[in-house]
Amino acid sequence: MTKVYGHRGSKGTYPENSMLGFKKAIEAGVVGMEIDIHLTKDHEVVVFHDSTLDRTSTGSGYIKDHNLAEIRTLKIGPKFKDFEKYEASWDDEKIPTLAEVLELFKAHDLEVNIELKTYEFIYPGIEEKMLEIVKASGYDPNKVIYSSFHLPTMIRIQRLDPTAKVAFLTNFDLPIPQDYLETLDWEGMHPGKDIVLKSPKSWGPIADKIRIWTVNDPEEMKTLIDLGVEAIITDYPEVAVRLVK
């Protein structure tokens, strides 16, 4: 049965990559969660989508130029006041660390897809630091998938931990995608929904090894569920969970 992953939590309804959004996706019944990570100036791993703080926090500038103590003074909620469900309590939401997020997910036995945002900047040592945090958390390694658009990141993770489950992120319609999986020893692939919907015959043979992003339209959800994909990653997990059931 196709699994449902919350995209940055419940991105369509609650602040993205926030503890609140993650908790709401868990309440909706997701099997897994997709999150994004960056490295701070003092080499701490935080869960945040953009390389800059401006769009979804009260801060500004690049994450790499701030230490964790500075980042922890920022708030997420105020940037989402136009959301229908907005409440003043959202303003208490802070940028979480990877360790904090894993603690929450572990308590609910979730699968987690950690996307490394390494295609804009090279964060020296981020792969090793991330793996150390995951190991220290006691997380079941079979429930952790590492992904990136940046191929060197994938290779570095595999060198550091040959048992790690890695899945390549792509928005290109790759020819014979199963050849990539087998030759590069990837656990799976994470293609964008449009390329899969455009070429289902190409992706169909490895449907059980692909997690599709970002699927928000119910009809597209149904099509991909019928195709038998491993998982759909969505901003509206409550809708996808209902369709899967």
Listing every helix as H and every strand as E from the N terminus to the C terminus, the arrangement reads EHEEHHEHEHEHEHHEHEH
Give helix % range: 25-40%
Number of domains: 1
CATH architecture annotation name: Alpha-Beta Barrel
Reading off the top of the CATH hierarchy, the class is best stated as Alpha Beta
**CATH homology-level superfamily:** Phosphatidylinositol (PI) phosphodiesterase
User: Can you tell me the CATH topology?
Assistant: TIM Barrel
Count the DSSP helices.
Answer: 10
Main sheet characteristics: 9 strands, mixed
Backbone CA Rg: 17 Å
Q: State the assembly state of the protein chains.
A: single chain
| Distance N to C terminus | 9 Å
DSSP strand (E) fraction? 15-25%
* Overall form: globular
Which runs of at least 5 residues are low in confidence (pLDDT < 50)? none
Structural class by sheet pairing and helices: alpha/beta
Average pLDDT, to the nearest integer? Answer: 97
Count of individual beta strands: 9
Using brief descriptors, characterize the structure shown.
245 residues; alpha/beta; nine-stranded mixed sheet; 10 helices; 9 strands; globular
